[in-house]
Amino acid sequence: MDYLKELEGKRLHDHFEANMAAKTTRRRIFVPGAVIVGAGPSGLAAAACLKEKGIPSLILERANCIASLWQLKTYDRLRLHLPKQFCELILMPFPSDFPTYPTKQQFLAYLNAYAEHFDLKPVFNMTVVSARFDSRCGLWFVKTLGLKNEETEYVCQWLIVATGENAEEVVPEFEGVDEFGGPIVHTSSYKSGELFRGKKVLVVGCGNSGMEVCLDLCNYNASPSLVVKDSVHILPQEILGISTFGLSIWLLKWFPMRLVDHFLLLVSRLMFGDTAQFGINRPEHGPLELKSMTGKTPVLDIGTLAKIKTGHIRVCKAIKQLKHQAVEFIDGKVENFDAIIFATGYKSNVTSWLMETNMFSEKNGLPRKPFPNGWKGECGLYSVGLTQRGLLGASLDARRIAEDIEHSWKAEATHFMAFTACALPPTPPPQP
Asked: φ, ψ for residue 367 (rounded to 5)?
C-alpha cells in the first residue's frame, strides 16, 4: 500500500511527466483508487469519505475552482433555502456561528474549508470528454482535454460520476429570439438586479431561482413579470419559525406522506390563500408525493408571493413567440419587455461523455434506478449527488460508495499494481 501512496503523490507533477507533456499532447496516467468527475459538493464528499478509509482518489474538474456552479453561476443574494443542518457535507458540520440559512459566500467558505481539511486537491481545467470501461483489463479509461487541448487519459479501477444534476443550462427555444433585440440571459449569468433598474423584465420559470430573481429585481426598482407555464407548489420557508422542510422530515417519521402533504397544503392555504387566483395553480399530487415521484421540488417562498399579491410582480401565461422588444403569450396578449431572464434550470450532461447506457437514462442523464439505489452501477461505476435528494442525498451516496469500494480495495489494489507493473513503460533517461 506504501507503493500506492507514493504513486498517488507523484501522479501529476513529477519530473518525468513534465518532460513528456512538453514532447507530446497526449499522455496516460494510472490512478490508484477512484477517479471522481466533478469537484462540486458531491465530488468533495465522495473524496473525503474515501480518504477517511485510506482509499486514494483523483478529482477531475473542468472549471478552475471547486463548486464552480456556486462560485461562477449563482446570483449574489443567494442563500441556502434549507437550514444548514440539512446541507452540510458528511464528516464535517457547518461552523456553529453560521446563521440558519448560510449565504452563498458562507457556503463557499465552508466548502473551501472542507477541501482544505481533507487535503483534497482536484485537477482543475480538465474536461472529461469520454469515459469507457475495458472489460479485458477491468479498468476505466477516462479521456480529458486541458486548456490547450492537451489530451490526457486517466486509468482507474473505479469511476465516480459527480458532475451533478446542474451541469448544463437548460435554455428553451422560442420563435423570434433573434428579433427581440434586448438582453436575453440565463440565471447562470445573472448576478443582481442592478443592471435592470427601471426596466421591464420577463422572468421565465417559476422555481426557487425564478421566484427569487423576481424578488431581487423588485429590490432594484425593476418591473418583473413571471412566466408560470406549469402548476407548482409554493410552501412557506418556515411555519411558526420552524423550517417547513425540517418539520416535514419529522412528521414523515410518524405519519404517512399523504397526511403530511394535506397538512402542508392546509398551512400554505392559511398563510397564502388560494394561489390560483394569482395565476399559480397547484399540481394534483401533494408536494412531498410529487417530489418523490418526479424529483420536482416545491418552491419555498421567502417573500415573492407577497410581491405578487401587491402587483409588484405580474404572473403571465406561457410564451408563444418573441417579437421586437415584446413577447406574445399563448392567451394572445402581447406585452413589451426590455429584457428576458431564463430561470429554466439545468440538466445532467453525463450521457454526453460516459460511454455506458445501463446506469444512466439517456432521457435526463440521471440514474435509472430510483432513490436510494441510484448510487451504484456495474464494473466499478458509481454516482453521487444525482438522485434529486440534495446535499443530504449526496452525503448518503458518498458514504455508501466509500463503504462499497472498501470491501474490495485491498484485492483490487493488488491486481492494479500487477497490471501497472506490466503496462508502464520503462522510465527514459533524463533529457540533457
From this structure: -55, 140
8 A C-beta contact, residue 176 and residue 170: no
Cα 308 to Cα 215: distance, rounded to the nearest angstrom: 9
Q: How confident is the model at residue 410 (pLDDT cuts 50, 70, 90)?
A: low
Backbone angles phi, psi at 172, to 5 degrees: -70, 155
CB of 257 closer than 8 Å to CB of 288 = yes
371: its cell numbers: 432513490
Contact 206, 344 (CB under 8 A): no
**Dihedral angle of Cα 420, 8, 165, 83, to the nearest 10 degrees:** 150
Cα–Cα distance, 133 to 144 (Å, whole number):
15
Q: What is the pLDDT of residues 8-43, one digit of tens each?
A: 444 434 433 444 444 445 799 999 999 999 999 999
DSSP labels, 304-351 = HHHHHHHTSSEEE--EEEEETTEEEETTS-EEE-SEEEE---EE--GG
Q: What is the pLDDT of residue 26?
A: 75
Rg for the chain (alpha carbons), in Å?
24
**Whether the Cβ atoms of residue 384 and residue 374 lie closer than 8 Å to each other:** no
Phi, psi of 71, rounded to the nearest 5 degrees: -75, -40
Report the alpha-carbon distance of residue 157 to residue 417 in Å, rounded.
11
- Whether pTM exceeds 0.85: yes
Supply angle C-alpha 151, 119, 12, rounded to 5: 25
CA distances from 405 to 47, 164, 234, 269, 400 (A): 12, 21, 40, 48, 9
Of residues 258, 302, 260, 309, the one with CA closest to residue 280: 309
Contact 201, 210 (CB under 8 A): no
Max CA pair span of the chain: 80
> Helix 41-52 and helix 390-423: axis angle, to 10°?
60
Q: Which three cell numbers stand for residue 335?
A: 406585452
CB 192 within 8 A of CB 77: yes
Q: Nearest 5°: CA angle at 248, between 244 and 252?
A: 175
Q: How many CB atoms lie within 10 A of CB 28?
A: 15
The distance in angstroms from the start CA to the end CA of the chain is 34
Residues 49-70 as b/e (b if ≥16 CB within 10 A, e otherwise) read bbbeeebbbbbbbbbebbbbbb
